[in-house]
């Protein structure tokens, strides 16, 4: 009888551990990998202040494009593109954001399962992924692929919308 309780306790503790690891699972695992050889690039973020948020909005309005084919960030405004702060945005867009449809669908599935609000880093990356997905959708001609990209776009939009609603 005693062994049965021990076994039950072990199973319970293992399930708690698995649940805790699930909640710590990174939405953007590439953010925690150093790709360019600098420790400061682990978990890069662009927005650290209200001015950064305004700058990001200005960059997006200038017609910024995130291209997945050769991982380039295109900012048409040369003055904005030359700012030192844009380097962090380039790293996020080129190295952190998911570019393959399968990666984006994995992300949207994780976002749909979340019960807690996103952290500000994940919110920023989700909005940028939404931008990338909308730009990719606009360039996709195949009707089946358009449907898949549209579905991913709508799921990302719902995740952002859900996160912005008051609790």
UniProtKB/TrEMBL annotation:
The gene is fam180a. PANTHER family: PROTEIN FAM180A, PROTEIN FAM180A-RELATED. It comes from Austrofundulus limnaeus (Annual killifish). The keyword Signal applies. Residues 1-20 form the signal peptide. Keywords: Signal. InterPro entries: FAM180 (IPR029170). It holds the Pfam family FAM180. This is Protein FAM180A.
